[in-house]
């Protein structure tokens, strides 16, 4: 992976954008037929991607009776926030949302903390076995975590961690990919910056906290957002390790408590929208960092 | 918390007296790695080892039968028609999703790149589904696929076509899952391509225009080759991601109808957590893992050859 080019890209967002606009004008200017076709295709594709979400939103704003009626006709009982009120006051959504939030924040803080420390250790310090341990970490990126659910579940069982928050959180904090991404970034920080602090008598930990962390804020931010999105949306592991309805995270609760609302489609759509909302807000707020982060790391999700 | 510490630390620093950089001992760096290594050993390395051991036993979820059975689980898996079917389904899913997810994401990124102003709007349109939790995606599409008042079927019937059993018709269900997956995940590849396109230097285009290259020519001879590295990476990540499909299948069809959408991970889940046969489920996991390693190695080979 060409981390170098990507980091360069992430450091020059403004130049890239200006450059992109110039190129667009350049490309579009040449052929009207081509431009028209491109715009039409773009609009059609965007509609196909947005319509399902829009339909979910409109359904959630109907009364239950209208929601089960013909999908393309206007609601006979008018638009209403009933479904949302029902879900927020009577359902378990608020509890699941709190669980998800707690789990996602804990996973993010722990993952970023231990990964950043490890990345610093691998990037800037010398100790016996360092290269070997780093190679092992990199190799483990290949292991698809999903195939470990069976032994991991058994292990949690023997540690008596099933049906606990610790059981949901701890197995998610091992992120070799994040260590790799951060180490690559730390490698690019000039060593001279540390020398001065070292002459002042600062220990490694202080150098890490006062020099490395502030300089790495963009990458730490990007990694945090990744980990948060991943943890918030994680389904398989929380689904395997919890039975207690009080501990369910939002994705698991929504999917497994079937018929929690009977066949109340407006309410089930309202729950879905509420579940999606926090990340939409995160995305809207941090769009630039997320896009940058994706570009910088090129890591896989799903 | 970091902010607080960084702001506090300088003022708390002792007056400059020692000028010995040697205060930083050679071995001290190891401690930075320790917290990660503990978690790494506990939650990654140990399950790999214990899973391998488990696959050689007839251990069940109920705790009974933990005896060593040698390679019999592996022998059974190789003769299990359901294993082969799930492998076949996984391969079909991987091919059916990977190709469109690479091509379509490039088309989207290219159109946004050269297209209308308001980039953030297009970016948001294509990327938002990727942010949805899988259960929301499943709920949304189950509702779209409903017979009767589901959006797609009601459009179909109004146009005079017959309803389609998107999720309960053999042969159709896999197609529906592929469709949902493309809709859900294309945004990720799209963003990678978009940032690759935006990194193409301007002077390349100017030169091409001076040479009189039209839009099509520019696309084929300049843009596609220039994002080649990104394409290779996306293809690799996509194939590995598609091989691991589970959640949307579990939520939409649970592997049915008649196992026609059951992927390997779905089968591992069924065997281990519904059928309680942990040992056997582990054995299938390891066979699958071996297969993934082979795929990854082959991909790396091909990629390296392309680069040299």
Automatic annotation (TrEMBL), chain A:
Coiled-coil region list: none
Swiss-Prot/TrEMBL GO biological process terms: transmembrane transport
Domain ABC transmembrane type-1: 97-286
Alphabetic keyword roster: Cell membrane, Membrane, Transmembrane, Transmembrane helix, Transport
Predominant cellular place of this UniProt entry's protein: membrane
Protein's UniProt keywords contain Ribosomal protein: no
Residue ranges crossing the lipid bilayer per the database entry: 34-55, 96-120, 132-153, 165-186, 207-232, 265-286
Region spans: Disordered: 1-22
Recorded topology in the membrane: Multi-pass membrane protein
Any single GO CC term annotated in Swiss-Prot or TrEMBL for this entry: plasma membrane
InterPro entries from the UniProt entry: MetI-like, MetI-like_sf
Source organism superkingdom: Bacteria
Protein family according to the UniProt entry: Belongs to the binding-protein-dependent transport system permease family.
Name assigned to this protein: Sugar ABC transporter permease
């Amino acid at each position: 992976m060409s981390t170098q080019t990507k980091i360069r890209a992430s450091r020059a967002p403004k130049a890239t954008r200006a450059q992109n606009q110039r190129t667009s004008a350049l490309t579009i200017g040449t052929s009207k037929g081509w431009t028209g076709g491109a715009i039409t295709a773009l609009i059609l594709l965007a509609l196909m991607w947005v319509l399902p979400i829009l339909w979910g939103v409109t359904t959630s704003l109907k009364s239950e009776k209208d929601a089960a009626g013909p999908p393309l006709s206007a609601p006979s009982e008018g638009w209403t926030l009933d479904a949302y009120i029902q879900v927020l006051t009577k359902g378990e959504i608020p509890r699941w949302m709190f669980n998800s939030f707690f789990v996602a924040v804990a996973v993010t803080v722990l993952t970023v903390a231990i990964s950043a420390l490890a990345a610093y250790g691998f990037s800037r310090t010398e100790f016996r076995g360092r290269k070997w341990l780093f190679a092992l970490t990199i190799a483990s990126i290949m292991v698809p975590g999903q195939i470990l659910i069976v032994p991991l579940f058994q292990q949690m069982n023997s540690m008596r961690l099933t049906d606990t928050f610790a059981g949901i959180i701890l197995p998610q904090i091992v992120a070799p990919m994040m260590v790799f991404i951060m180490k690559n970034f730390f490698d690019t920080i000039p060593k001279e910056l540390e020398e001065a602090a070292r002459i002042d008598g600062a220990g490694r930990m202080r150098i890490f906290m006062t020099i490395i962390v502030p300089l790495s804020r963009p990458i730490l931010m990007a990694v945090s957002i990744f980990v948060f999105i991943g943890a918030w949306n994680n389904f398989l592991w929380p689904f395997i390790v919890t039975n207690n309805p009080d501990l369910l995270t939002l994705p698991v609760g929504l999917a497994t408590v079937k018929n929690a609302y009977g066949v109340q489609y407006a309410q089930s759509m309202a729950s879905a929208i509420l579940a999606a909302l926090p990340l939409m807000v995160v995305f809207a707020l941090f769009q630039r960092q997320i896009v940058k982060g994706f570009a910088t790391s090129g890591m896989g999700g799903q | 918390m970091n902010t607080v510490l960084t702001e506090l630390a300088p003022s708390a620093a002792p007056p400059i007296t020692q000028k010995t950089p040697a205060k930083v001992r050679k071995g001290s760096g190891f401690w930075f790695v320790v917290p990660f290594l503990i978690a790494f050993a506990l939650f990654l390395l140990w399950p790999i080892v214990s899973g391998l051991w488990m696959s050689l036993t007839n251990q069940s979820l109920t705790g009974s039968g933990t005896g060593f059975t040698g390679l019999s689980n592996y022998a059974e898996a190789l003769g299990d028609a359901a294993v082969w079917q799930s492998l076949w389904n996984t391969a079909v899913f991987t091919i059916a999703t990977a190709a469109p997810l690479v091509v379509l994401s490039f088309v989207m990124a290219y159109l946004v790149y050269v297209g209308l102003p308001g980039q953030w709007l297009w970016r948001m349109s294509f990327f938002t589904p990727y942010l949805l939790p899988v259960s929301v995606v499943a709920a949304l599409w189950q509702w779209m696929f409903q017979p009767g008042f589901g959006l797609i079927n009601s459009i179909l019937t109004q146009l005079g076509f017959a309803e389609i059993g998107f999720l309960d018709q053999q042969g159709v269900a896999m197609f529906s899952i592929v469709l949902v997956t493309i809709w859900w995940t294309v945004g990720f590849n799209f963003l990678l391509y978009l940032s690759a396109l935006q990194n193409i230097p301007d002077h390349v285009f100017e030169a091409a225009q001076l040479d009189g290259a039209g839009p099509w020519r520019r696309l084929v001879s300049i843009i596609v080759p220039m994002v080649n590295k990104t394409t290779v990476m996306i293809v690799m990540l996509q194939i590995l991601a598609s091989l691991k499909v589970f959640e949307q299948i579990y939520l939409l069809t649970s592997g049915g109808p008649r196992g026609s959408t059951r992927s390997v991970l779905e089968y591992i889940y069924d065997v281990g957590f519904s059928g309680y046969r942990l040992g056997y489920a582990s054995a299938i996991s390891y066979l699958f893992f071996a297969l993934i390693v082979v795929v990854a190695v082959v991909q790396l080979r091909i990629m390296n050859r392309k680069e040299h």
